[in-house]
Write a structure and sequence with these properties.
With about 190 residues, the protein is α/β, with parallel strands linked by helices. The protein has one domain: Rossmann fold, CATH 3.40.50.300. The longest helix is centred in the middle third of the chain and has 18 residues. The two termini are about 15 Å apart. The structure holds adenosine monophosphate. Adenosine monophosphate binds next to helix 2 and helix 3.
């Protein structure tokens, strides 16, 4: 199964993806994690994306599409993947469809974690205190949220039109969200 966990930054996508990896042996493809790994390794790519990530804006489509493409053989071997933080633009979504179609596959489900902006701002303030991730600071977070609202949220009608979108209340506890995500994976998309 190919699953997209969809939602704004701090919606809980990473938490749910990691749980599904642990419980079901699925693999998680997080472009945010890949880009952070590139930065910590000091690679050329890491250097190229550092300032963009710190500003809270989106890295170019070509870069993230190439990162995902590189990992698709691994996803094939695992019988599919959980896409976390990708796609974030219509161009990325179209590229993903093309890359999967070339492998005789497609996206099976898009599970959207719905969390309101106010709750996200509070969550991220806590994460900033706990983890100190530079792009979680309140000013940069506002920019990340704006990027989500203008560039990523337009994907919702794209996936709704394909009948793949399932919406889950992401404001509930981690356990309750986990139950809803599991139910969404059983259900036929509406
Ligand atoms: P994340 O951890 O998913 O919130 O990603 C952290 C940062 O990495 C984002 O604010 C972007 O700068 C960059 N990034 C991650 N995934 C993507 C993507 N699919 N498209 C563009 N930029 C991305």
């Amino acid at each position: 199964m190919n699953l997209i966990l969809f939602g704004p930054p701090a919606a809980g996508k990473g938490t749910q993806a990691k749980r599904l990896v642990a419980e079901r042996g699925m693999i998680q493809l997080s472009t945010g994690d890949m880009l952070r790994a590139a930065r910590s390794s000091g690679s050329e790519l890491g250097k190229r994306v550092a300032a963009i990530m710190d500003a809270g804006t989106l890295v170019s489509d070509d870069i993230v599409i190439a990162l995902i493409e590189e990992r698709l053989p691994e996803a094939d071997a695992a019988g599919g993947a959980i896409f976390d933080g990708f796609p974030r633009t219509v161009a990325q979504a179209e590229a993903l469809d093309r890359m999967l179609a070339g492998r005789g596959q497609g996206i099976d489900r898009v599970v959207r974690l719905k969390v309101d902006d106010e709750a996200l701002v509070q969550r991220i303030a806590k994460r900033f205190e706990a983890e100190g991730r530079a792009d979680d600071n309140p000013e940069t977070f506002k920019i990340r949220l704006a990027a989500y609202n203008t560039q990523t949220a337009p994907l919702l009608p794209f996936y709704r039109a394909q009948g793949k979108l399932i919406e889950v209340d992401g404001m509930a506890s981690i356990e309750a969200v986990a139950k809803s995500v599991d139910a969404a994976l059983q259900e036929e998309a509406a």
